[in-house]
Amino acid sequence: MTFDRTWVLAIAWLPLAWILFEWRRTARKLGLVLKAACFMAILLALAEPRMILQETKVALAVLVDTSASSSAADLQRASQLAQTMSGARGRHWMKVVPFARSTRDLTSNEQQGNLKLTSTTGEAGRATDLEAAVREAIASLPSGMVPRVALISDGRENRGSIARAAWQAQQLGIPIDTFALAGHPEPALRLESVSLPSIAFTGEQFPIDVTVSSPSAGPAQVELSAEGKPLGQTQVNLSRGENPLRLHASLNTPGALDISVSIRAASLGEVHFDQAVTLRKPRVLYISQDPADQDWHLSATLAAAQFDVTRVKDPGDVHLNDYQLAIFNNWDLEAIPPAGKQAIEKYVQQGGGLLVIGGERNLYKEDKKVEDALDRTLPAKLAPPRSPEGTAVVLIIDKSSSMEGRKMELARVAAIGVVENLRPIDQVGVLIFDNSFEWAVPIRRAEDKATIKRLISGITPDGGTQIAPALTEAYRRIRPVMATYKHIVLLTDGISEEGDSLGLAKEAEAQKITISTVGLGQDVNRGYLERVALSAGGKSYFLTEPQGLEQLLLRDVLEHTGSTTVERPLNAEVLKHAEILNDVGMETAPALKGYVRFISKPTAETILQLDRHDPLLARWQYGLGRSAVFTSDAKARWAADWVTWKGYDKFWTNLCRDLLPRAQGGEASIEYDSANGDLVTEYRLGRGVPEPEQIPDIYAFGPDGFQQPVPVKKIAAGTFRGRLPIGQRQGLFRVRPVQESRAFPEAGLYRPEAELADYGSNEALLKQVAEFTGGRFQPDPASVYSGGGRSIASSLQLWPGLLGLAVLLSLAELVMRKWKGVIARE
Fold first, then answer.
1. How many CB atoms neighbour CB 576 within 10 A?
2. For residue 747, what are the contacts with CB-CB under 8 A and spacing of at least 6?
3. Domains, the chain, ranges and CATH?
């Protein structure tokens, strides 16, 4: 027995002296003895006595190799060995420690029920460090027990040196029992080639082409993973000789990522490769003057598909080179200045994507003689109206007293809307009627639109309703007008005598003058209006509420005057089945309610069409980039039924991804200089990309927390190079600027680890470790707790027991003293 504070023993006799002093003076001698014994126990506890014992209880750390070189069969055998050791543990202490590049804790899935170890995924699993594992195991063993280590591995170390850890274990007297795993057998399959795109975008499917050679035919399993996380697996049938395989991956994380593919066949082994691919989140410039609450559908769809969408109303101050795709939605392309059109052409020629979506703002320019830069860029050009000589329109508006209020207000707005959409060479007249008729705007060219709109705004309601005379007057005046298309629109909310209206309508049709009728409210002669419109080759419309009058009137005039804009329900027809229509389901697409007439260029690819000859979707390659025209809209007007169609999201996502560039503004390449152990990064600026005034801060990130700045210098015009020593480090290296840069994009290089090329087992090494440390090679797993008669000196702390004894003695003295008092009272 030893004492940590021997000086306390010098006063340990004081309780005995107290007994001798009080013995004759007290009648409670037993109580005196108990109290003195209590004090003596406390003093002895303060001296911290300990007893030296020989402990035979074993503390065992079981190291299990779960690196990439361990096969599924190895992991199953290792799990069985560790489970057997756990079952034989008894009073001993045991801990299972999986390891690869470093040690790790068991996962919850591995501990459910019987132990079932799984491979360490990702970068952590692509190395085997036996030295670090043994050192960690030794450090984890509790003191006061006989220490032992069991090592279950294939012995294929590629980091550190087990010799150093074995020497440490031998010096500490810790034997290491070793169990050899078989490891991966050398495969009969051979990887011939691997091809990945130099750049891909988040959210899109990109191809991975692999060629594997097989000595015989048979089934195989292909497993694809990224950053150690499985993406999926598929079954293939290999034939004898070379087998080209195409896989597809889709990732949502931008940056340089590690793509891993394993191909395994039961009788032919497994081949594996890792390679870096750079993913970028596509940036879209969405140019639209429509209210955001009306055309949010497309931008929301693109955002959900991993596009970074920036919405602007004016592209004037925007740098197109900062984006991969520019979308002009319902934009008057002729309003873009010549410099802007040239910038767009240059942007597409250098690899950018351009999409033009139609709308009512697309206007044909009559006096355009020469094809401009934007015309050259697009696969289709705006079609001239079908009446290049001009059209004539007469609006007959009921101004009776029943039209007072909201009806007349909307009628004036609708008439002004029609005037706004007419060309200067067109002619327009506005005839108003009640019991009589009057020309608010006599038939004239639509040149001075301000005057015409002012005259229309002055119309006020009054009087009754006489339709026939007004219709006759309109026909009489429009018939001699020189125009290709002549159209009359009758707007009324009342009932009138028919007169000879039907005869006049038939005569108008013979003279190629069309008449449409619009009935407002419930009190109209529906049959009469329908017969007039049908007889004159026009259309009849009936509105119970006047809110939709403006759009209806404009649509009818444009349709009957050969305008570039066509507003009527039409179904899209697939003219050529392209990859962008995959999984869209065009056969279920609802009708579109209108479009703008374009003419596809001869070399353009027209994919969808309307009305048997007008293009709906046309695209082509222009320089390094691609451009496309969609002649309808993407909002809840013409595409009102499309925005709720299940194929809407897929259609627009596929189309926009098809237009993304496959070349960057700056090209980055990385290679490893084996002679010097340097990572060499080279940047070459693309055409039209200005050299930066200052090179941004660029860093390299690698395995094991490697992070170093890369010194980049200019070596030639438009060419920069950086060199960074990395030694013999292996794994995925990412080189990227601190802030995103078009001239210096992120790039990656994967240096394959030796772990993936290690086959078989190094039993000789495992035997040497066991012999050197005093352990055993391949022992019975249940016998690992056998110490061979070994014991270890351990100390038993006695002070807790002495303090407990002091408490019991004090309680005993208290009970004895109080008990006598209780008896005396009774």
1. 11
2. 256, 276, 278, 668, 669, 670, 681, 734, 735, 736
3. 2-53+795-825 (no CATH), 57-184+760-790 (3.40.50.410), 190-279 (2.60.40.10), 283-364+567-658 (3.40.50.880), 391-563 (3.40.50.410), 666-755 (2.60.40.10)
| Contact call for residues 314 and 734 (beta carbons, < 8 A) | no
The band of 688, judged by pLDDT with boundaries at 50, 70 and 90, is low
**pTM for the whole structure:** 0.57
Q: Are 648 and 601 in contact (CB under 8 A)?
A: no
Q: How far apart are CA 78 and CA 80, in angstroms?
A: 5
Order the strands of the 712-716 sheet from edge to edge: 666-673, 678-685, 719-725, 712-716
> How far apart are alpha carbons 365 and 703 in whole angstroms?
61
How far apart, in Å, are the Cα atoms of 134 and each of 120, 138, 177, 676, 762?
17, 6, 12, 32, 17
User: Quick one: tokens of 105?
Assistant: 């804790």
Q: In what order do the strands lie in the sheet with 93-99?
A: 93-99, 58-65, 146-153, 176-180
Which residue is associated with the tokens 């019987």?
Answer: 114
Task: Convert the pLDDT of each residue in 180-227 to its tens digit.
Answer: 999 888 888 888 878 777 678 888 888 888 899 999 999 999 999 888
Convert the pLDDT of each residue in 462-492 to its tens digit: 888 888 899 999 999 999 998 878 899 998 8
Q: To which H or E segment does residue 110 belong?
A: helix 108-111
Strands (DSSP E) contained in 294-450 are 308-312, 325-329, 353-357, 380-382, 391-398, 427-433, 437-445
Interacting residues of 261 by C-beta distance below 8 A, sequence separation 6+:
194, 208, 210, 222, 223, 224, 225, 247, 272, 273
Q: What's phi and psi for 257, nearest 5 deg?
A: -125, 155
In this structure, what are the phi and psi dihedrals at residue 486, rounded to the nearest 5 degrees? -125, 130
pLDDT digits (tens, 9 = 90+) for 239-292: 999 999 999 888 888 888 888 888 988 888 888 887 778 888 899 999 998 888
The 3-state DSSP class for residue 351 equals coil
Residues 6+ apart with CB under 8 A from 695: 712, 713, 714, 720, 744
